Model the fold of this input.
Amino acid sequence: CEKVRFPSPVLVDSWVRGSGEVVAATPIGEDGVQVTVRISVQVKGQDKPGCVVDTISRLFFSTH
Done:
């Protein structure tokens, strides 16, 4: 994870849902890509998300 933020508290028994958005994709060499995905956890009845995190993954592709 690159960044983790907690803009508002999540109370016990709250309804939550998460959604993801690709915010960056950068080629790595000839067969890979680095992808940054921003995950937001929304809390029912709250304007601000309970958590926002940017995850970084490296994916490599093979023809074998």
User: Anything to note?
Assistant: The chain has no helices and four strands. The mean pLDDT is 95.
